[in-house]
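Invent a record, attention on tokens:
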Amino acid sequence: MNEFFEHMQSLIGARYAEFKAAYDGKPRFKALRVNTLKISTDEFCALFGGALERNGLCAQSFYCEVKPSLDPLYHAGLYYMQEPSAAAAVAAFTPYIGERVLDLCAAPGGKATQAAAVMDGRGIIFCNDPEYKRVRALTENIERLGVRNAIITCNTADDYVRAGFEGFFDTLIVDAPCSGGGMTRYEAVPYSRDIVRGCAERQRAILVQAVKLLAAGGRMLYSTCTFSREENEQSVEFLQSLGLKTVDVPLRAGEERGIGLADARRIYPHNFDGEGHFYCVLEKPNGEAAQPRPPLRGKPRRVKVGGATLDAVEFDGRLTLPISPPRLDGLNAVRIGVPIFNDKGEPTHALSHALTRNQVAETGVAELGAAAVEYLKGGELKLDVPRGIVAATACGHALGWARSARTGDGETALKNLYPKALRI
């Protein structure tokens, strides 16, 4: 770590002592971000109980100490655990989020789900990660937070260019792979100047292709969780050399302007109750206008799930909630929208989280109350509810599905359909 501290001293000079004192002496700050696709911040605060301190850099983010793995509200998708500084970038980018969005390095899904909440079901958000092992966590978070309009892909920026998506997106998020210097207070991050240089080179390779995907007038959010100029301001300067212009977003308390780049934003632990982060908003003034792309044709259908009748679209024999994606030839599309039925003909876990509260109520509900944790563990429950498929809920919000049936003694038991891979 000596190399990291030497680098920081050379980077911030006279303020290094203040940084080092915060680095050594400040506690780690944890925060949750309310998922406004499912609940308003006011409703959530009333439901969560206890005092919640708002994060000054994101209106939906609150400092808290919570064990999400044991909290039914977490499993119902009402919030996402997100480092306080990491929530700042998309919060600042909110006015620029359009209806054709690509998060190029999306896993595990913090910024993608934050942007999806801003979109509130409008348009399409492509949630991509080039590493398949990371796509699983991304998919789980997209599902849990009930994002309806997502297409999840496992590709590179090169793949998107080759597939003909040049000039297609009006919004691009690049949370670039970096050396992770901003996280070293609580993560064992290997750090060296060679690693920094390697990450900077990798970023340039991604960005030169990413710029091609952005339509004229489109906006890009570039961010990292590190401090080095090579990975931050110099990467933005590289984007400027490719024709992008920086956008001066409001400077908020807890942020600093970039080093030699006034429109960029830096967050340090000695200025803010959070870890290190960097972001900059850029615009592509010239280039291709937003390109039309043939739609992926689907057949409209209506299907029944429990007591609810849902609008659906059929793509290649698979039913999803209504979505209008473009053709995806050349991309490895892991998931398109929200599939309605699994291979067994049962409603999918993703569907239970994507339905509105009114739709959940129409399917049939088993409100679990104090038994919600037992449900999340995979246990069977005895509740007097209508027979058939029902949504297992906590405080009215779906956790998943259960199948109600009579037992031999005449009571009602719920067969637990909560996915085994997600059980606590």
Residues 193-213 form the longest helix (21 residues). Residues 158 and 177 are 16 Å apart (CA to CA). The longest strand covers residues 214-224.
